[in-house]
Write a structure and sequence with these properties.
Layout (H helix, E strand, L loop, with lengths): L1 H76 L4 E13 L2 E8 L13 E6 L8 E6 L10 E6 L14 H9 L5 E8 L12 E6 L3 H14 L5 E7 L8 H10 L3 E7 L14 E2 L4 H7 L6 E5 L2 H13 L7 E4 L15 H8 L2 E4 L4 E4 L7 H7 L17 E6 L2 E3 L11 E3 L3 E3 L3 E3 L2
Parallel strand pairs: 7-8, 7-11, 8-9, 9-10, 11-12, 13-19
Antiparallel strand pairs: 1-2, 1-6, 2-5, 3-4, 3-6, 13-14, 15-17, 15-19, 16-18
Bound molecules: flavin-adenine dinucleotide.
Flavin-adenine dinucleotide binds next to strand 4, strand 5 and helix 2.
């Protein structure tokens, strides 16, 4: 009996213990599961927060990249209208020639430009009711991202006209503009530039202050690391006019592919041949024939009218095709690209064209021999403002009330709709101008 009782007590106790053990296991399991779920939730939450932070970071990076892209696009495209630049350095080069280093006043990036292009300045000269507009070529490398540089020569009065004032714009720069001044500047422009994607050897021909776009081209070649062969001829009177002398010599010394040939037409007593200059005399076709291995080059010219005329004539006689000769005129073009001669029908049509200067109340017959409307207006005593006389600065723009014009070459400046740049166009038919 006792044994039975003990056995049943033992059985009951065993089942209770098993039950308790099972319960404890279940509770433990549930607790472990709860902890794991809690941990997983914590991890998920952490991951979600991290993802959110990463997404925010990406969004910020995307915005930053978009901003940089927009800035780069703006920098590439230039700016519209006028931008303020401050002169942070003015360096005298030689007699009446100064280099001006310009930084954008807004501190934003500078647009890239093509070597050979120029800046247009709107100058507020004392005593003038309208700004004076003048163009100056960029003279430093386009790889120079921090500043622009122009090099300006003060234009004296013509020797046969002692009573007229010296050049207004260049005198203002030379005598008045100083470090810290702010200038109004239009975006770099111009069709005369060196195509840096090409590798054909080039000849740079510069006379006097015409060195500026050429120096820019040579600087661009050197800064790009290109091995493009460049013969660089520079003609001045003597050392007193040797603009950017040290920079030129450094360029030639550091770049085997840039061959510098400086010619002095009137060397000074202390000027040393072989050191300051290589040739005595002018830069002419004979010098080119003496130095160049052949005539198989692309040619870039800038200098006085006489300089360019003599060289373009010489190159033509040497068998150099017109298509590889490029030039920039700092004033009214003295070299004319050969245009197809007008047909007799065109000539007789132009002889009948009538020009009306509405404001001046004048109607006159066009003279077919004339180059452009600006010249014609002046010959008729009609005053039209002018600046570069090369279609670049826009000073001579006049509204066309009726009629059409023809451009001899595509102007650098774009005239406003319904207007024309009188320095580089001729009438196509009867014209009424707002002048
Ligand atoms: C695309 C381009 C790039 C250029 N780049 C450069 C450059 O890098 N560096 C540079 O130095 N120049 C450059 N120039 C030339 C520059 O734009 C100016 O034409 C030059 O500085 C002369 O302008 P000015 O206002 O000083 O002279 P202006 O006032 O236009 O006078 C011109 C001449 O006329 C004379 N004159 C004034 N009044 C009379 C009168 N009543 N009768 C007769 N004559 C008179 C003056 O004495 C002077 O000799 C460039 C021109 C162009 C078109």
């Amino acid at each position: 009996m006792n044994a039975t009782l003990i056995e049943s007590w033992q059985n009951a106790n065993g089942a209770g213990l098993s039950y308790l053990a099972g319960l404890a296991l279940l509770v433990g399991l549930l607790a472990w599961l709860a902890v794991e779920v809690f941990r997983a939730l914590l991890r998920l939450n952490g991951e979600r927060i991290q993802q959110k932070v990463a997404v925010e970071k990406l969004r910020a990076q995307l915005q930053e990249t978009r901003l940089r892209c927009r800035e780069a696009e703006q920098a590439e495209a230039g700016w519209n209208g006028i931008r303020k630049f401050s002169v942070f350095k003015k360096v005298t080069q030689c007699d009446d020639v100064n280099a001006f280093y310009l930084k954008p006043h807004d501190g934003r990036p500078l647009p890239a430009f093509k070597p050979g292009q120029y800046l247009t300045f709107q100058l507020d000269l004392p005593g003038r009711d309208k700004p004076l507009i003048r163009c100056y070529s960029l003279s430093d490398s386009p790889h120079q991202k921090d500043y622009y540089r122009v090099t300006i020569k003060k234009e004296k009065n013509p020797p046969d006209k002692p009573d007229v004032p010296p050049g207004a714009g260049s005198s203002y720069f030379t005598d008045m503009v100083k470090e810290g001044d702010i200038l109004n500047v239009k975006s770099p422009t111009g069709h005369f530039f060196l195509d840096m994607t090409q590798t054909h050897p080039i000849v740079l021909l510069a006379g006097g202050v015409g060195i500026t776009p050429m120096l820019c081209m040579a600087n661009a070649i050197a800064a790009s690391g290109s091995k493009r062969e460049a013969y660089f001829f520079f003609g001045v009177r003597n050392r007193r006019e040797h603009i950017h002398k040290e920079e030129l010599e450094k360029l030639a010394a550091e770049n085997d592919n840039i061959h510098l040939h400086v010619a002095y037409s009137k060397p000074g007593e202390k000027d040393v041949k072989g050191k300051d200059y290589q040739h005595e005399g002018r830069v002419g076709i004979e010098l080119l024939k003496e130095v160049l291995p052949s005539n198989n080059f692309e040619y870039y010219l800038c200098g006085s009218g006489a300089f360019m005329k003599s060289l373009t004539d010489g190159l033509e006689a040497w068998g150099v095709p017109d298509s590889v000769v490029h030039f920039e005129a700092f004033g009214p073009a003295t070299v004319k690209k050969k245009a197809a001669a007008p047909t007799p029908a065109e000539t007789s049509h132009l002889q009948k064209v009538m020009i009306t200067f509405a404001r001046s109340n004048k109607t006159v017959r066009w003279e077919p021999g004339l180059e452009n409307l600006l010249e014609f207006a002046k010959s008729q005593g009609v005053k039209i403002d002018s600046g570069c006389c090369a279609g670049g600065c826009g000073s001579c723009e006049v509204a066309i009330k009726s009629g059409e014009v023809d451009y001899l070459k595509k102007p650098d400046a774009t005239p406003n709709p319904g207007s024309c740049l009188t320095c580089v166009c001729r009438p196509k038919n009867d014209l009424v101008l707002d002048a």
